[in-house]
Amino acid sequence: MALIKRKEKIKEPEIKITWKEIKRQKVLLLWSAIIVVYGFIFYYLPLGGWLMAFQNYKPKDGLLHSQFVGLEKFVQLFSDVTFLKVIRNTLAMGVINLAVTFIMAIVFAILLNEVKSAGGKKTVQTISYLPHFLSWIIVTGILHDALSSTGIINELLMNFGILDQPLNFFAHPKFFWPIVAFANVWKETGWNAIIYLSAITAIDPSLYEAANIDGAGRWARIKYVTLPGIKPTIIILLLMNVGNVLNAGFEIQYLLGNGLVQSVSQTIDIYVLKWGISQNDFSIGTAAGIFKSLVSIVLIVIANQIAKRNGEERLF
Amino acid sequence: MDQYFDLIEAYNEANPTMEDGTENIPYTILCEDWRYFCLENAPQFLDGYPNDGSVIVDPEELKVIDYNTTDTAKRYFQKLNEEYQKGIVDPESFTQTYDEYIAKLSTGRVLGMIDQWWDFAYTAEDALKQQGLDLKGCNYVPLPITIEEGMTNQWHNSGGTLNVASGLAITTSCEDVEGALQFVNDLLGQEVHDLRCWGEKGVDYEVDENGEYYRTEEMRMQASDTAYKASHLCTYSYFPQYTGTSRDGINAMKPEGQPKEFYDGLSKNVQECFTAYGAETYVDMLGTSEAPGPWYPMYSFSNNMTTDTEGGLAWTKMGEVKHEYLPKVVMAADFETAWEEYMGIYDSCNPQAFIDEMQAELDRRMEEAAKYE
Asked: Which run of H or of E encompasses B56?
C-alpha cells in the first residue's frame, strides 16, 4: 500500500504548449489528427442522418426538403405494441447473453489456466476459439440441423427415454432465448477467454509462490490470487459490454426466428430492418436506432458511475 | 380438399417409408418469410378464384373480398389442424427455412405440399432428376384442389396479363439511353433469347426436320445440373423475358413450355399418370381459364404498398399476425378457441382499411382499362 501511495504523490511535470513543444510532437499530433478526422467522418458525420427521425423522410425529397414532423415518429414508435415487445426481447436476450458469455469466459479461462500440460492447454484453447470465426449463418445452420426432429439432440433425448416424440424446439417461444444464449456461449466463450488468459499470465508468479507457502490450495489460489489479479480486466470488459446490451444480435435472431416465435425473437435491429428498409419508412427506423443509441449511452454511464463509486477501474 | 388428404393418408399408410427405410413426410407447408403465401392464400384457390395473391375479386360485382375470414378459410385451416393432430402435416412446417424445405423435397420423402411450381421446380425437381429419384416415382404433379367437389378452379390462367409490380430502370446519368435500350432489345431478340433459355444449338438442344427443338436425355440431365445451369444458361428471372410461343411459331420460348419436349422429359411414372388423366402437360392436369380481367393480378399492387397509408400499415400488421397465428391455429389442441383468438387479433389490425385501398385500386384499374376498350 505504501508503494501505491507514494506513486500517487508524484506529479507529472506540467508541459506548457509552446510552438517548440508542438514542433517536437508534430509526428504524434499528425497521427492523432488522422484519427480525429477518421472519427469525425465515420462516427459524427453520419449522425446528421438522425434528422430523418424528426421528419417524414422521403428519399425523393432528400434530407433537406422532407417534411418536418417533430416527435411524431417517436410517438408512433412507442404506441406500437410490437416495438415494446421488441425492446423487451432485446433487453432480455442482451442481458442473458451478457451474463452467460461473460461468466463462462472467466470460468473457462481459469479452468484452462489450471491445466498443467502445455500441449493440452494449447489444443483446447485453439479448438475452443475456432467457432468465433464461423459466421452466424453457419452456426444457425448447424443449430437448425442439430435441433431438428431428426437431429442429434432429439435422437439423444429419445434414446435416453427422456422424450418419446421428437420435440420441435423452434416452435416453442420458451426455448428461443436459451437457444440463442447457448449459441452465443458456444461461439464466443473460447474467444472471450483469451483476454482473461493473457491477464492471468500477467499476474506475478511470486504471488502464487507466496500463497503456496502460506498453504493455499488450488481453490484458495484462484480465489485470492487469480480473481483479484484479473479484476480490473473483468470490470473494464463488463463496462464495455454493458453498453452493448442492446446489441443483442441481429443475424442469429433473424436466421433462427420464424412466425411462431416472432413475439420473442425480434430485436430492435430486426425491427429497424423490417420497418425502415422493407417498408421504406426510414424515419421510423432511424427513430428506433436513436432510441437504441440513447439507451446504450445511459447504460454505459450508469455502469461507469457505479464502478467509480466503488473505486474500481473505469472507462472515463 | 378432403379427397386430397384421404389420398395422402391412404398412401402414407400403405407406404410409410421410402425404399431405403427413411420415413415419409406426408404433407409439408413452407411458410418462411414472404414465401408463407403457401400457407396463407390457399383459400382463394379453394374457392375457385385466381391468384390475385392478397385478395379475392368478385368478377361479377367487382368487389374485393378478404379471403382470410371466409368460411372456406376456416374450413381449410380446420382441416390442416385435424391433419396436424393425425401427424399428417409435418410438425416442422412452420419452423423450416426455405433451404430446409427444398432439401426435404429433394429427398423424395415429401408426399404432398402446396406451392407454386417456380418455387421448387428449378431446385427440388432438378435435384430429384439428378439423383435418379424421378425414375422411382418421386415427382410432383399438380392437382386443382377446391373446397368442394365439382367447382371450377382457377389454379391456372392463360392469356396476357400485365404485372406492373416491377420493371427495368435506366439511370438518369446514362449517357446513351438509346444504346441501353438497344441492349435490352437485343437480349430479347429471338436468337439471344434462345441462347439464354435453351442454350447452344447442338450442345444443349437439337433441331428436328420440322424446325422443332428437342433435347436428348443427356442434354436434359445436363440442364438440370445447378452448376451447368449457372454457367451455360442465363434466364435472369428478374430481367424482361418471354414465355409462350417463340417468334418462329413452332417452338416455345423456354424448354419447359415446349409440350413435346416437356412430355418426353418426364419420367415414365408421370407419363403414365398423365395418360390416366388424359393429360399431356401440367396445365392439362389443372385445366386453364381465361385471364380473369383487366384488374388481374391484384398482388402487383399490394406487394408495393408501404406503411405510408393506413391500408398499407394494416396490410403489414395483418401479415405479421398471420405469420404467428396461422401456425398456432393449425397446431392448436382446440381449434375453435384458437380460431376465435386469431380472428380477434386479426380484426384489431384494421383489415378494412386494406380492403378499402384494394377496392380503390380495383376501381382505378377498371376505369383505366375501360379507356382502351
From this structure: strand B56-58
